[in-house]
Design brief:
By secondary structure, the chain is an all-alpha fold. It contains 14 helices and 2 strands. A hairpin with a 6-residue loop joins strand 1 and strand 2. The two termini are about 15 Å apart.
């Protein structure tokens, strides 16, 4: 599923910058929620075939952390360095402007908590449900962070990493959930969807961040990925039929041209997305069955996380340059190209060496490194 993952990562890049030669792919929200499903699929796969047994819980977690944190900390450090250079050259702190503006206002407790959150990633999703009181310098709950001033998320140095906060929460509970019987998984999916319904229609929170950042509601997407894995186990022993290729082709057509499908509106605004997610639940195992032995697909997929975690820094740097030369209409194309190039370098310098360590740790514990 490597090719799919990189397309979804690029869809998020263009959602934050501009279209890529007119294409927006699945946009931000759908791409993020499809990533949740893919994560659910892969975590269920490796927990059933690589990290077998409860005794491997800490090995699973530490290997997932090795996957996430080194790359994140490198981007965090690069952002701090570039922001400092930006201040020295342009008298502009860039991403750190919010800290510079509110440093004298923000309370010590709030400042420390934001620094810790930026370092450990956990809790970055929670920031999206909080605001900052500019008088007291303390945080408060808000149902819509966009109505606060300043918006607390602007204190996140790698702001898109909020998604990794949800991923990490799922990693913590996945070993205790995804191995359960199908009926238990379906029950949890229904409970999560009922929570979403309750939040949307009873409480009335049908806006961002509740639409795709609230973990209890998003758990359904992760567990749809688990159901998708169970479908893969069913399909695995069967020969690949023409119908399977047709389903995968239709799925990719929808991914590429999602922007041209008329949206549902009003109370039914999310139906279009959820119909697509249920279709993806069927398409993902077929796609994985077709591509699981393709080395090129795996290598392409390795670029998806670096692209995602570096793209906001890329966009902020590119914006400074293209604004001076009048190429604002091409920011999407430049952002995509530079994100891919930098991601490739990051994979070679960071991901590949760490991946060897991760796989060797699995072998030492008697597991398999073939997945």
């Amino acid at each position: 599923m490597g090719f799919l993952r990189i397309i979804l990562a690029l869809a998020i890049v263009v959602a934050h910058s501009g279209s890529f030669f007119g294409l927006k792919f699945t946009g931000g929200i759908v791409s993020v929620e499809l990533f949740y499903m893919i994560s659910g699929f892969y975590m269920t796969l490796i927990l059933n075939r690589k990290y077998i047994g409860k005794e491997n819980y800490m090995l699973f977690l530490s290997n997932r952390f090795l996957r996430i944190y080194p790359m994140y900390w490198v981007i965090l450090g690069m952002t701090l360095i570039i922001s400092t250079l930006s201040y020295a050259v342009f008298n502009n702190w860039g991403i750190l402007n919010t800290y510079a503006t509110y440093y004298d206002v923000i309370s010590t407790g709030t400042l420390v908590s934001l620094i810790v959150t930026n370092l450990v990633v956990f809790g970055q999703d929670v920031v999206m449900f909080l605001g900052l009181d500019p008088v007291k310098g303390t945080m408060f709950f808000t149902s819509n962070f966009r109505n606060t001033d300043p918006q607390l998320w602007r204190f996140l140095i790698v702001p898109q990493a909020w998604m990794m906060g949800l991923e990490l929460l799922f990693y913590l509970i996945a070993p205790f959930v995804v191995r359960r019987k199908t009926i238990s998984i379906l029950t949890l999916i229904i409970a999560s969807m009922l929570m979403r319904f309750y939040v949307y229609f009873y409480i009335g929170y049908a806006n961002d961040p509740w639409t795709y950042r609230f973990f209890p509601s998003e758990l359904a997407l992760f567990l749809l990925g688990t159901i998708s894995y169970k479908l893969f186990c069913f399909f695995e022993k069967k020969e690949i039929q023409r119908l399977n290729y047709f389903v995968v082709i239709v799925f990719f057509v929808l991914v590429f041209f999602w922007q041209y499908i008329p949206p549902s509106t009003g109370s039914y605004a999310h139906i279009k997305n959820w119909l697509f997610y249920f279709f993806a639940c069927i398409a993902l195992p077929l796609l994985f069955q077709i591509t699981k032995s393709w080395k090129i697909d795996k290598h392409i997929g390795e670029l998806s996380y670096p692209i995602y975690i570096v793209h906001m820094l890329v966009i902020s740097c590119i914006s400074l340059v293209i604004d001076r030369f009048g190429y604002q209409s091409y920011i999407g194309e430049f952002s995509v190209a530079m994100s891919i190039i930098i991601a490739f370098i990051l994979v070679k310098l960071i991901s590949d060496p760490i991946e060897k360590i991760r796989q060797s740790r699995v072998v030492l514990q008697g597991g398999s490194n073939k997945i």
